[in-house]
């Protein structure tokens, strides 16, 4: 018996009946989502603490505020986003009406990961709801406590005929993916991204894949090591390193390394104290499996800062590794933990070659006082997003699309990009009746004279509409 | 780089071609990595060369289209080549603006930073063409891919053999040979091409093969644009200018002998106007193609015997109001109209892609909408009416790639409108700036200075909660 059959049929029927189309309905759902966050903040905070030992500050900044911000943005702009977009016309269509109509796809599936279990499920949900779809949410089973709140409490705030939360591991996800959806939004690893896309291909379902990679962090000789260390450390150790856009490794000269390592030590001490284990601001690793994986990586290169670990509460100290070889495991997989390897390069060119030899990452960072150096790194590489002289600030702007490229993903979202991602952009041309004499030059029997007139009419050079 | 199709015999020969395919793609990648596609000047130069190619080889192109699809010089130009020239013109004009960084709105925290979207090429793009508009549907996407700074591997359809061979000859004569190779061949070669890694694949063709392309792309996490098909409905309201409607419908249906992905596939109308619709369609057909369409230089032929048999087979058991005859030797099928068509019959089960117009009777707008919604989302939808309420309702309660109201096909000729499908009719879109966006990566950029560190200290741990505990 397929456990999802009934749920999916119910949601499809609601969509067909047109329930999700009116702006009022979508506004009600978005407001419901907002109330869910506000009324259950304590409950959610406790769940995040149990799953990831996520502190109040980090939860506020990276889970609650971001989600609430997106809800508010959607509520403010929904009517504008839903409007038909006027399109420029050519001479042949001057008297017509040309526009792009934004339509919901239908039934959307959102699969979320465990590292920001609230943000990474709610922010896409905002877009899918705003665009008028029915939605099936599949939170990660690994962030168990948050998942429990989502499945037990969230549905009370949304119209359950148009919306469902399903729990389960890889097996349930596989079963779910056999069904047809009209859009699939997946956040997770490239390996599973391939599985999702292959499943989507069977139904010709379009996808957005938010994946990952190793995000390089180039540190130029021309910079202030302490400022750089503050910024790199903050973004590296946030959420105990379990962030898809965290700086994954540093590329710098041996000379810069000598100045950077003590600066990193200084930043870590200032942020987390002499014994980071006692800091309420440092998270823990999500599971034993990931803990063991990370513990293994501590053996790569040489520990310059940190290196301690304790399996009893899945603690890994904020760590910096040096003398790391490209072939070692810590440079082969996305780290996703509080470990920062430093790889030496002798020049900017060498750094850029190093980066370009590898898969395109989700984010890329360059630190330098020189604007030219920052621009060089940007121009000569590719990545989902880029930040010069800071960590993943770029994703705090809803006006910037958030997504990957190549192995780090396809498609993007945040703000209006979410709405557009979950909408079909339907090209519409409304012709005025009449003027048939002019339009009839396109009909057979074809003649050279007619062709010339037609070509002139199709020419867009003289169109100054909009 | 000319890769001929593998001959039927000789395993070594086939293997040789297969190795060549991976070499060609690798060479394209190396050429891309050299960075020469980045400068705006280079891209414009290549587009200008493409334009020169089309103008200088006009006759060769028309001859190939004539051999493949019985097009004549005029309709080859008007129904196909002109769209490509238009696109090139439009792109060359606007590209300098498109390649610029787009500044975006800032937040309170980023007021002093630079925030913008930077467009970059994806790398090596694969374009798989098709046979019904073999020139346009291969080259028009290519224009966008070149504009976005990519290397482009073309795989024209082997079904439109003459055009495929011509492209393999003339493209290397005008464009950069390493960056823009043409690979020809049938299923084995296409399968081998799909094993290679690309940074985007644009495929035009059937939903069945679309799934195969997307599955192959998934192995490399390659994004795809799939321009597929379906049955594009044409609703003719009682309240419309029937003469006008039928002329326009006939024009869109019978061009290229019905082999157009956005052709009106079938008509939905009230039984009370069915006879009039038939009469007026017949009148238009006569106006366009004369008494005997077979003799008209403007009327096309079916691409090959397989499709000829397939389309003729759809006539079985149907009520023929006009046409219904064919000649296998020349692959000619007369402009045909069927009446009182049963929705369960074969002609209503697959995309017709031939000069047969079934009329299915519906008694109301609601019934028409229901009929349409019970089926896969089509590439195009048409509605003829003078009643705004009817038009609004039809659009609001259905979905399709695109819509033209009171005409057919033309929404795809407007550059500012995206051309693409939805659901079974496809994903993604192109034309004009939509092509540029499809073939680019839009990279979010935030650049700040290393100074002003004090302004950022507030975000660092230890957090407030720890400080209040002390």
TrEMBL record, chain A:
<dbReference type="InterPro" id="IPR029510">
    <property type="entry name" value="Ald_DH_CS_GLU"/>
</dbReference>
<dbReference type="GO" id="GO:0005737">
    <property type="term" value="C:cytoplasm"/>
</dbReference>
<dbReference type="InterPro" id="IPR015590">
    <property type="entry name" value="Aldehyde_DH_dom"/>
</dbReference>
<protein>
    <recommendedName>
        <fullName>Aldehyde dehydrogenase</fullName>
    </recommendedName>
</protein>
<feature type="active site">
    <location>
        <position position="210"/>
    </location>
</feature>
<feature type="domain" description="Aldehyde dehydrogenase">
    <location>
        <begin position="12"/>
        <end position="424"/>
    </location>
</feature>
<dbReference type="GO" id="GO:0006081">
    <property type="term" value="P:aldehyde metabolic process"/>
</dbReference>
<dbReference type="InterPro" id="IPR016163">
    <property type="entry name" value="Ald_DH_C"/>
</dbReference>
<dbReference type="GO" id="GO:0004029">
    <property type="term" value="F:aldehyde dehydrogenase (NAD+) activity"/>
</dbReference>
<dbReference type="Pfam" id="PF00171">
    <property type="entry name" value="Aldedh"/>
</dbReference>
<dbReference type="InterPro" id="IPR016160">
    <property type="entry name" value="Ald_DH_CS_CYS"/>
</dbReference>
<dbReference type="InterPro" id="IPR016161">
    <property type="entry name" value="Ald_DH/histidinol_DH"/>
</dbReference>
<dbReference type="InterPro" id="IPR016162">
    <property type="entry name" value="Ald_DH_N"/>
</dbReference>
<feature type="active site">
    <location>
        <position position="244"/>
    </location>
</feature>
<keyword id="KW-0520">NAD</keyword>
<dbReference type="InterPro" id="IPR012394">
    <property type="entry name" value="Aldehyde_DH_NAD(P)"/>
</dbReference>
<keyword id="KW-0560">Oxidoreductase</keyword>
<dbReference type="GO" id="GO:0004028">
    <property type="term" value="F:3-chloroallyl aldehyde dehydrogenase activity"/>
</dbReference>
<comment type="similarity">
    <text>Belongs to the aldehyde dehydrogenase family.</text>
</comment>
From TrEMBL, chain B:
<dbReference type="InterPro" id="IPR029510">
    <property type="entry name" value="Ald_DH_CS_GLU"/>
</dbReference>
<dbReference type="InterPro" id="IPR016162">
    <property type="entry name" value="Ald_DH_N"/>
</dbReference>
<keyword id="KW-0521">NADP</keyword>
<dbReference type="InterPro" id="IPR016161">
    <property type="entry name" value="Ald_DH/histidinol_DH"/>
</dbReference>
<protein>
    <recommendedName>
        <fullName>Aldehyde dehydrogenase</fullName>
    </recommendedName>
</protein>
<comment type="function">
    <text>ALDHs play a major role in the detoxification of alcohol-derived acetaldehyde. They are involved in the metabolism of corticosteroids, biogenic amines, neurotransmitters, and lipid peroxidation. Oxidizes medium and long chain aldehydes into non-toxic fatty acids. Preferentially oxidizes aromatic aldehyde substrates. Comprises about 50 percent of corneal epithelial soluble proteins. May play a role in preventing corneal damage caused by ultraviolet light.</text>
</comment>
<dbReference type="Pfam" id="PF00171">
    <property type="entry name" value="Aldedh"/>
</dbReference>
<keyword id="KW-0443">Lipid metabolism</keyword>
<dbReference type="InterPro" id="IPR016160">
    <property type="entry name" value="Ald_DH_CS_CYS"/>
</dbReference>
<dbReference type="GO" id="GO:0005737">
    <property type="term" value="C:cytoplasm"/>
</dbReference>
<feature type="domain" description="Aldehyde dehydrogenase">
    <location>
        <begin position="13"/>
        <end position="441"/>
    </location>
</feature>
<dbReference type="GO" id="GO:0006629">
    <property type="term" value="P:lipid metabolic process"/>
</dbReference>
<comment type="subunit">
    <text>Homodimer.</text>
</comment>
<keyword id="KW-0560">Oxidoreductase</keyword>
<keyword id="KW-0520">NAD</keyword>
<comment type="similarity">
    <text>Belongs to the aldehyde dehydrogenase family.</text>
</comment>
<dbReference type="InterPro" id="IPR012394">
    <property type="entry name" value="Aldehyde_DH_NAD(P)"/>
</dbReference>
<dbReference type="GO" id="GO:0004029">
    <property type="term" value="F:aldehyde dehydrogenase (NAD+) activity"/>
</dbReference>
<dbReference type="GO" id="GO:0006081">
    <property type="term" value="P:aldehyde metabolic process"/>
</dbReference>
<dbReference type="InterPro" id="IPR016163">
    <property type="entry name" value="Ald_DH_C"/>
</dbReference>
<feature type="active site">
    <location>
        <position position="261"/>
    </location>
</feature>
<feature type="active site">
    <location>
        <position position="227"/>
    </location>
</feature>
